[in-house]
User: Fold this.
Amino acid sequence: MTATPTATPDKDAVSSDLLDRLANFIEPSPATDQDAIETWHDLAPELPSILDDFYAAVDRDPDLRAIYGERHGQTQSLQARQTAHWRSLLTEKPGIAFQGRSIRIAEAHARIGLPSHWYTAAYGRVLAGAIPALLVQHRRNPAKAQRRITTL
Assistant:
């Protein structure tokens, strides 16, 4: 008896399936592509001040300042890259290229010696600025504010 060869799953399909499962775990009624694009349009004008606050907080912490210190003159470049990262998180379809960029970002942070707890806290710091900004923008429409925040 000969085994029937099975098709190797497309890597994008496998990746997308996992990302869909993760999104469904976080929020049972996941955001649509349109939700994500609208969230980006709302967040984009707020991001410069959020990132200014973020890098000021980095400068105030002695451990982060020691890691980031030699890159202090690159704040504008880092902010531009971080803005591009947030834009891609909200406007690009998940897939292998998307995951590859995320892995390269994580590897860059590991190379400079940023511990994972600070890496995670950095996302929290940006979210701590983004969530109130979205709430203010949609204060008269709580359902829209909730959708933007769960999309983020």
